[in-house]
């Protein structure tokens, strides 16, 4: 049979196919170097592109060939024999390509993000249309007051939506045709075919949690409420290690066997803690991970390339018949990329963000090679930004994995501003990469499930009135958990089963004897009594009240502009990256959250001080770029000055990549915002601690003692015997303290020591620890603040003959006890070494959270002491304060029960070693010399002045708002002058403490005294255990309205007053503070004893103290001196806030009122 005649076009297509797809014709044979992902930045994990070195070579293309000559005799060719060799040539594993020979890659289509309209629902009406129910929502666009209409159809109708709810509408509104004169209301219809609808978008639900919702809506909500880190399985540990190994390979672009094995060894050694928890040796771990990592190298050979290889088949279960897809991973953008999307109400952490090249081919039957060549040449590889998820478990693309990957396509499309039509799933066990298209129907179903979850979660926020005894403060709430699925098999193997059943029993009060899970339910909860259930329900509800403000704070990141949020003190706006800054390598940390360190400065130096606001060193933060990149890096503040902030973050900030992503002009600064991040995880841990009492096999002893208030038992004190070490420690205590120590040593369950200020609680605790260790006991030392824990450790540091382990954030631990932390010990390389470091110390010290006020006003101590007074021992002999200082607390709080331990303590005073400096201030004419009375500084430094209230009303010294916060600059100058006089008169810096109840004043004072490194500037909470010869307190509030809200917290006031040993100086406005009943009584007491010193007018200007460290106190910028809500506000000028200002500003005092856990979290972060 003669060959068929071909057209000229078919012949040219055929030859072009041969010369472009076949082996390259080169003068010199190419080298075949290994492919790898090369780094473009110093980071090991950002923006790596595929590159291969190329030697120069001559390349011939189709244009260089005489087609007629080459085709001569074509009618005699054996096509069947040539198909495998010519049309489908076998290529070298890593051929060298020159730019002219590489296949053209098509960019993704232009990205058109969905139109997002944020609305508040004003009204809801249900209607029937064509026999089907639909919901018609009257909404108001926010910000603004435009009214629109949203019609929900199909499965969207089931949304539990109510007036006042916030929604996102994704799609375009249109004005319907109307015959009336009124303008038609823009309307949008949301159904299975068109548009999307997000309910409560400010609740960012994780893609991982949502992916499990198809099986059970309840599980993701329960796991969000109670965050447990107890259950660690070998499979989880193997998966985490293998994830990290593969991410390291992607980052470094290295896939050779020795390097992979070295990474396995390194990551396993970093995971010793997890291995110890699953009782697995290093050798076992290495062997297991090497077995599981066998496919990594073949994965790289197949898929890591600049263009798809013939064997790089991409599995696609949705592919058309005969369609085959080939994959090349050409570039790595990021690993562990955390993406928040208030558009979709989702968030997620993507294993790897990659640039993928995909070639879709059709391998169906062909009649001849010309048509096949023509078809192949028409196919162009497509470049896509994609999520790449690594799955180390079962090698099946289950619905959970597919759902998670689909949701990541939404997040990445928004983050990268490009179309992301599908994602990639890599299964390490099968060496298979699966393509997961983001199909609308499936994405829609996931978002419907997300809305249902959000509606349940928001029910916790809709609290009703009190129920039962009003003292309990338990809010009335709707059912906030979906019903159980009652599937015995699914529920029985669920990791959240214990928590789910606990809530079903205690919160939902379900009685179940007949359902498929009735036996499981009984097994998990039958031991819980009604009283125990009521206890859990009460405390769980009160914890939930505490976290509501955290949710409000979190959403400000996208609902409030940076400058507005900065006015509220929770953001630094208009920040630019200081690219000249280089972090000192010796101070670098290996922590994942602090992988990179950067310095940011204000875009304009005339802008306000960074010290103005809630943000301080150690605070958690997020870094964003409006409006493109939301929270793309997270970390904490390392250092803070008025002009700059240094942050440690988890991701590299690559300015080239940032400019590309944000399409920023090369000649303009990229403007960042740095926001305070909120502490959600703390609440989940608190719930977990509570739940651990109730689980089967849980802490039943403490359940009996704490919840059921079982009577604590004590051994007979006559039976107490001490060894030599314990006896020596006991001998150093006074009689009162010995009684307390003996109570502890004879306790079978617990003992309570009620120690008044200065009675030696720290001394007693340190002695008790020594005694317990000498008796062979182990000790957990916990307190509400880092400073309280570290003060006790400092007592033990030079006397303990045993090891101590200090657990916690190294940046918040006192430098003098760093030696007790793991960070200052040799890095363990074996499980035995780690176990020795962690388990051998008989004393472990850490912090905890306190619950003691308002809705949670009955503290655990109070509850136990009221129930069992016999378990309490009082300490009332104090050895800290002199008699004058002790008088304050004794009269105001302790009803004269507190007494000085000796006459020497009672008469203690602070004598100035060298009065020359004070005399020098008056060597020349100065305003204070012409005053009627003695110089006010001289009076304060007189050793007979032991407790004094310095009244600033005549100065005057008005407070001034700083966003939501408040400071007093004049009072800060007065405090500085007193501290400086004390130091220059011979008082040691470390014997001076400066206190304030206001965070903004603490930051101001810290800056004023920044060169006096040993002077401690503390909040009242952090001052516990920080006794000083002289304490100077700045009360801050001085205004015509008499506002002094924090001063009503007498517990903190008492802590502040009782830190002083010899001299207590309190600066404040008598007129303002006497409006508070407790402070009025305090001021009357001070007045009765003649301990009030009124300052003369302009007292802060009377002494020319040189080297005033805070020049900004006198020369601060105009913007820094202006109150945001009163444009004409100047320093030290009283201004009554406008009604508008009062309404719009929520101060730190109001935020913390009635929120003791939130207050404690904020104090802990400070």
TrEMBL record:
Its main location: nucleus. It catalyses: ATP + H2O = ADP + phosphate + H(+). Gene3D superfamilies: 3.90.320.10, P-loop containing nucleotide triphosphate hydrolases. It comes from the Eukaryota. Its EC number is 3.6.4.12. It is found in: Nucleus. The keyword Nuclease applies. It holds the Pfam family AAA_11. It comes from Rhodofomes roseus. Belongs to the DNA2/NAM7 helicase family. Keywords: 4Fe-4S, ATP-binding, DNA damage, DNA repair, DNA replication, DNA-binding, Helicase, Hydrolase, Iron, Iron-sulfur, Metal-binding, Multifunctional enzyme, Nuclease, Nucleotide-binding, Nucleus. Residues 732-825 form the DNA2/NAM7 helicase helicase domain. Residues 145-356 form the DNA replication factor Dna2 N-terminal domain. Its cofactor is [4Fe-4S] cluster. Residues 29-53, 1108-1146 are annotated as: Disordered. This is DNA helicase. InterPro entries: Coronavir_polyprotein_1ab (IPR050534), DNA2/NAM7-like_C (IPR041679), DNA2/NAM7_AAA_11 (IPR041677), DNA_replication_fac_Dna2_N (IPR014808), P-loop_NTPase (IPR027417), PDDEXK-like_dom_sf (IPR011604), SF1_C_Upf1 (IPR047187). Residues 856-1070 form the DNA2/NAM7 helicase-like C-terminal domain.
């Amino acid at each position: 049979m003669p060959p068929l005649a071909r057209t000229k076009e078919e012949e040219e297509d055929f030859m072009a196919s041969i010369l472009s797809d076949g082996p390259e014709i080169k003068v010199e044979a190419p080298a075949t170097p290994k492919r790898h992902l090369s780094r473009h930045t110093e980071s090991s994990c950002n923006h790596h592109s595929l590159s291969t070195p190329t030697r120069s070579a001559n390349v011939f293309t189709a244009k260089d060939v005489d087609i007629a000559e080459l085709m001569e005799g074509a009618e005699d060719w054996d096509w069947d024999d040539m198909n495998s060799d010519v049309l489908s040539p076998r290529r070298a594993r890593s051929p060298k390509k020159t730019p002219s020979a590489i296949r053209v890659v098509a960019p993704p289509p232009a990205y058109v993000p969905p139109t997002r309209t944020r609305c508040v629902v004003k009204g809801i009406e249900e209607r029937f249309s064509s026999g089907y129910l639909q919901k018609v929502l009257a909404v108001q666009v926010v910000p603004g007051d435009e009214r629109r209409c949203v019609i929900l159809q199909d499965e969207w109708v089931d949304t539990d939506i109510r007036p006042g709810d916030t929604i996102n509408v994704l799609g375009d509104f249109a004005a319907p045709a109307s015959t009336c004169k009124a303008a038609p209301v823009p309307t949008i219809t949301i159904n299975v075919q068109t548009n999307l609808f997000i309910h409560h978008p400010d609740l960012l639900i994780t893609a991982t949690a949502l992916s499990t919702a198809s099986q059970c809506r309840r599980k993701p909500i329960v796991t969000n409420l109670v965050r447990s880190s107890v259950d660690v399985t070998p499979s989880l540990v193997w998966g985490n290690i293998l994830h990290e190994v593969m991410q390291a390979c992607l980052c470094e672009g290295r896939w050779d066997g020795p390097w992979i094995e070295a990474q396995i060894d390194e990551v396993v050694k970093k995971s010793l803690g997890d291995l110890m928890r699953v009782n697995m040796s290093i050798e076992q771990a290495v062997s297991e991970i090497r077995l599981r990592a066998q496919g990594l190298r073949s994965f790289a050979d197949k898929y890591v390339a600049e263009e798809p290889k013939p064997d790089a088949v991409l599995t696609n279960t949705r592919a058309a018949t005969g369609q085959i897809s080939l994959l090349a991973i050409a570039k790595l953008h990021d690993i562990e990329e955390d993406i928040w999307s208030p558009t979709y109400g989702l968030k997620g952490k993507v294993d790897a963000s990659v640039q993928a090249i995909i070639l879709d081919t059709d391998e169906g039957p062909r009649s001849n090679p010309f048509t096949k060549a023509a078809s192949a040449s028409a196919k162009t590889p497509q470049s896509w930004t994609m999520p790449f998820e690594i799955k180390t478990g079962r090698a099946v693309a289950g619905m959970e994995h597919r759902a998670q990957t689909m949701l990541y396509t939404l997040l990445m499309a928004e983050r990268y501003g490009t179309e992301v039509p599908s994602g990639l799933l890599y299964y390490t066990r099968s060496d298979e990469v699966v393509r997961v298209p983001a199909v609308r129907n499936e994405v829609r179903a996931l978002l419907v499930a997300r809305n249902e979850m959000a509606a349940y979660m928001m029910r916790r926020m809709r609290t009703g009135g009190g129920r039962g005894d009003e003292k309990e403060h338990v809010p009335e709430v709707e059912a906030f958990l979906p019903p159980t699925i009652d599937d015995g098999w699914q529920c029985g193997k669920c990791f959240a089963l214990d928590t789910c059943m606990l809530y079903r029993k205690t919160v939902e009060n379900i009685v179940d004897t007949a359902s498929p899970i009735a036996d499981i339910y009984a097994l998990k909860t039958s031991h819980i009594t009604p009283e125990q259930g009521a206890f859990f329900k009460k405390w769980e509800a009160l914890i939930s009240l505490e976290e509501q403000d955290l949710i409000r704070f979190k959403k400000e990141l996208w609902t409030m502009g940076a400058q507005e949020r900065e006015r509220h003190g929770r953001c630094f706006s208009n920040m630019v990256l200081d690219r000249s800054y280089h972090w000192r390598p010796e101070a670098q940390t290996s922590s994942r959250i602090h992988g990179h360190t950067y310095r940011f400065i204000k875009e304009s130096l005339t802008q306000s001080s960074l010290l103005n606001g809630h943000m301080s060193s150690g605070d958690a933060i997020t870094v964003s770029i409006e409006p493109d990149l939301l929270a793309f890096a997270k970390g904490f503040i390392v250092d803070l000055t008025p002009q700059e902030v240094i942050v440690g973050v988890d991701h590299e900030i690559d300015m080239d990549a940032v400019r590309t992503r944000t399409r920023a002009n090369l000649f303009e600064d990229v403007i960042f915002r740095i926001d305070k991040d909120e502490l959600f995880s703390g609440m989940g841990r608190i719930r977990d601690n509570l739940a651990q009492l109730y689980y089967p096999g849980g802490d039943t002893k403490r359940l009996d003692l704490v919840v059921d208030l079982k009577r604590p038992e004590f051994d007979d004190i006559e039976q107490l015997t001490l060894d030599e070490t314990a006896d020596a420690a006991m001998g150093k205590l006074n009689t009162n303290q010995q009684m307390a120590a003996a109570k502890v040593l004879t306790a079978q369950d617990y003992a309570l020591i009620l120690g008044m200020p200065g009675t030696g609680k720290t001394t007693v605790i340190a002695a008790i620890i020594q005694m317990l260790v000498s008796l062979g006991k182990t000790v957990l030392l916990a307190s509400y603040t880092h400073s309280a824990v570290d003060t006790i450790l400092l007592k033990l540091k030079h006397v303990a003959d045993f090891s101590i382990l200090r657990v916690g954030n190294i940046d918040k631990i006192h430098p003098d006890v760093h030696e007790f932390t793991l960070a200052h010990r040799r890095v363990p390389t074996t499980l035995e070494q780690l176990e020795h470091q962690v388990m051998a110390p008989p004393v472990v010290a850490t912090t905890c959270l306190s619950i003691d006020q308002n809705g949670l006003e009955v503290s655990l101590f109070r509850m136990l002491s009221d129930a069992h007074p016999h378990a309490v021992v009082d300490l009332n002999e104090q050895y800290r304060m002199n008699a004058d200082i002790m008088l304050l607390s004794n009269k105001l709080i302790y009803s004269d029960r507190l007494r000085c331990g000796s006459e020497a303590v009672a008469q203690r005073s602070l004598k100035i070693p060298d009065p020359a400096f004070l005399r020098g201030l008056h060597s020349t004419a100065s305003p204070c010399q012409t005053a009627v009375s003695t110089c006010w500084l001289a009076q304060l430094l007189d050793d007979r002045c032991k407790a004094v209230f310095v009244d600033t009303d005549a100065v005057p010294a008005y407070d001034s708002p700083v966003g939501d916060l408040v400071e007093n600059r004049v009072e800060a100058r007065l405090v500085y002058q007193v501290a400086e006089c004390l130091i220059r008169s011979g008082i040691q810096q470390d014997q001076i403490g400066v206190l304030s109840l206001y965070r903004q004043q603490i930051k101001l004072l810290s800056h004023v005294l920044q060169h006096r490194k040993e002077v401690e500037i503390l909040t009242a909470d952090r001052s516990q255990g920080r006794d000083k010869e002289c304490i100077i307190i700045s009360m801050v509030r001085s205004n015509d309205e008499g506002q002094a809200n924090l001063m009503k917290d007498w517990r903190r006031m008492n802590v502040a007053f009782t830190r002083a040993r010899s001299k207590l100086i309190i600066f404040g406005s008598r007129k303002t503070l006497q409006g508070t009943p407790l402070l009025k009584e305090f001021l009357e007491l001070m007045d009765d004893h003649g301990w009030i010193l009124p300052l003369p007018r302009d007292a802060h200007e009377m002494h020319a103290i040189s080297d005033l460290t805070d020049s900004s106190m006198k020369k601060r910028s105009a913007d820094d001196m202006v109150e945001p809500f009163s444009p004409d506000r100047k320093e030290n000028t009283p201004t009554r806030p406008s009604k508008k200002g009062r309404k719009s500003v929520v101060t730190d005092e109001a935020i913390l009122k009635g929120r003791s856990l939130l207050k404690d979290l904020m104090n802990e972060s400070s």
